[in-house]
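Narrative of activities, Objective 1.

The group set out to show that a structural description can be obtained from nothing but a protein's sequence at a throughput compatible with the screening campaign. Below is one input-output pair from the validation batch, recorded exactly as produced.
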Amino acid sequence: MSRVSLFRRLYLLLPSRARRGQSLVEFTVMLPVLLIMISGVIELGFMLNYYLDLIDATREATRWAAGDDPVHDAAGTWVDPNTTFYDEVQEVALQSLDEGSGGQITLDDTSDDIVISSFSVSGGAITARFPAALGEDGLSLYNQRTSAFTTAEVQALLDPGAPNTGIVMVEMYYDYHMILGLPWITAFLPDPITLYAYTMMPNPNVEPTPTP
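Output recorded for this entry:
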C-alpha cells in the first residue's frame, strides 16, 4: 500500500468533526494569502481603468489636433509655436480627461503633464520638429515633463517609403496614487506609479512644402 493511500485511509477514519476542524485550519492559513491576492487585483484594476482613460484622452486630443495647424496662424502666416494651437489641444485633452474619467482624474500641475510635438516628414524622414525652439522636449502644459520620444525614436516608427506628410503627437503623464494603498501592495509597487499614454496621427498642415 502506498503512503498516499495510507494517509487517505487514515483521514477517512477521522471523525467528521476532526475533518471539519482540519479544513477550517487550512482555510485560516490560506485566507491572508487570498486577501493579499484579491486586494492586489482590485488595485491593479483601478490603475488599468485610469490608464484607459488617459489613452482615450490622448486619442481625442490628437484627433482634434490632426485637423488644426501648429505652425501657421489664422491668416496663414508662419508662427512657431502657434500658441493658440497648443492651448486648444491641451484644453481638449483636459476636457476629454474630465468627461471620460467622470472627474476621477485631475492632473496635478506639480507632477503631471501634457506634452505636444509636431513633425514634418519628407521622403519617410523627419525634417523638422516643432516647436523648433524646444527641440526634443516638446511643448508641455505644466513644464514638469518632456517628450518620452526623441526624434530618432519617432523616425524609427515611420515607413521609409511613406510620402510627404506631417505628424502630431500628444503625450500624457499622470501619477496614479493607489486607492487602497495597502502596505503589502506598496511593499512591491511604488506609490505613486507614473502612467504614460501617447497617440500620433497625421497632420497635413505640417507637411513640408515642396521647393518650386
